[in-house]
Amino acid sequence: MRTADFDYELPPELIAQTPAPQRDQSRLMVLDRASGQVEHRRFGGLLEFLQSGDVLVLNNSRVIPARLHGVNARTGGQFEVLLLEENGLNDWWAMVRPGKRARIGTQILFLAPLGGKIAMEATVLATNDEGHRRLRFKGTPNVLEALETLGEVPLPPYIERKQASNGDFDRERYQTVYAGPRGSVAAPTAGLHFTESLLEGARKRGVQVCYVTLHVGAGTFAPVKSEHLAGHVLHEERYDLSETTARVINGAKATGRRVLAAGTTTVRVLESVAAQNHGRLAAGAGRTRIFIFPPYDFKVVDRLLTNFHLPRSSLLMLASAFAAPKETRGREMLLQAYAEAVRERYRFFSYGDAMLLV
Question: How far is Cα 117 from Cα 131, in angstroms, rounded to an integer?
């Protein structure tokens, strides 16, 4: 399939700049994959589509305040740093802008918010083929702790803020209520709609709620640039699948019960592990580059909860594959639903509304 087949027109005003006032009051479009029909709900109505015995799987990765501002120790020039992945203690791969000035050996100073004292510094150790810089930090026991005072919320580029996003609002709302292990530089956005009471309501219905961890990278926003999908190599992300989650899901599949994945990141973990183990899940940590696009035979996931995704994105391609497993017609079905979402003025992307594919 061609990348251009996954393009669509979106009025800029439908790109959500803020979330719904209450998490579970965002809108929910329900797409019936058998008929192609859509239904319009509020997110709280998700409970009506769950039944006893279902398994709801969520990605519990915590977003870190990964954006930093620093200065060149020699020239005083400004740098913007987005941490991407931890190699070890105080050793990170990062996007550094302007990259041309971040040569190997460059020292970057990070100043405390008040007083202008040097809070920590980093040295550029290496570069890779993607233009990222490997940074070694010093002046702090652990840069992850320093981020709580020095870092900013790494909002995606299509969300505009007049001031840096280090306020309490985005720190709370660009994070799921069940976030645990730290490591994502972008939110697993399908999970942003859940509240504690909604999850408790699911449990009271007999739904088993369990978690996977996939640390979302900045590559999640990158459009597919190759002309044909088969020529694209997807960004790599780290995951962890617990023994408990693997056992619960394997039990559900063995007894014909449904597995609902909240978010494309959750799907990537489950389907990646299943592909390595003849359809079953095995606990463990690893890395995945799985690129799911039509046609695809899903081994684990029976229902998908997701947001509305960017044109030409790998996330849109995954959702299209799920709309019609093992076929290619899911692309047309999903883009028709997107066209209706535009007509009905749904809000798109990270802070936008949700879609349930049943």
Answer: 30
